[in-house]
């Protein structure tokens, strides 16, 4: 119960609430970025390998 009471008190403070919202937003953006990298890992790998090959052939 102490943790819940502390959290409720923290959320009543406007600055703490804004900080918590920014932290939540950062967590969502980070999770979305990681999910995108996992989903597109094969395409990204192909893109980087093609770029590497292209650069090697240009030299």
Spans with pLDDT under 50 lasting ≥5 residues?
A: none
Helix content: over 70%
Question: Count of helical segments?
Answer: 3
Strand fraction equals under 5%
Task: From the alpha carbons, calculate the radius of gyration and give it in angstroms.
Answer: 22 Å
Number of strands: 0
Largest sheet: none
Structural class: mainly alpha
Shape: rod-shaped
Distance between the termini: 67 Å
Instruction: Name the helix and strand elements from N-terminus to C-terminus, one letter apiece.
Output: HHH
Mean pLDDT: 89
Question: Could you characterize what this model shows?
Answer:
It is built from three helices and no strands. With 59 residues, the chain is an all-alpha fold. It has one domain (2-58). The termini are far apart.
Structure summarized in a few sentences:
The protein is mostly helical.
Write out key terms for the chains shown.
rod-shaped, mainly alpha, 59 residues
How is this fold's topology laid out?
Blueprint: H1 2-12, H2 14-39, H3 41-58
């Amino acid at each position: 119960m102490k943790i819940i009471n502390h959290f409720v008190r923290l959320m009543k403070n406007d600055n703490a609430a804004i900080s918590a919202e920014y932290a939540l937003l950062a967590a969502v953006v980070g999770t979305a970025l990681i999910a995108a990298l996992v989903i597109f890992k094969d395409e990204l790998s192909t893109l980087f390998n093609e770029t590497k090959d292209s650069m090697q052939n240009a030299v």
